[in-house]
Amino acid sequence: MRNLRDFITIRQAADMIGVSPATLRNWDRSGKLKATRHPINRYRLYRRRNVQALLAALADHPPAKGASKAKGQPRAAKDRQ
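Request: output the structure for the sequence above.
Response:
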């Protein structure tokens, strides 16, 4: 881990994606979005570029029309307000 400025906390990543930190922990365990551990306190950190890439991929593949939201699926920005 060379530069901690390239990483964001689990809360920051969850807020960016629109899911809970618990969902990110589940995604980390299942390999959907892997976290890096802080070298001192072992907290989960996410590469900013990986989170942005996930958001871009989600933007390229909107949910099917009439599809209901599954648990742990990111919410749209308008849903978070």
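The mean pLDDT is 84.
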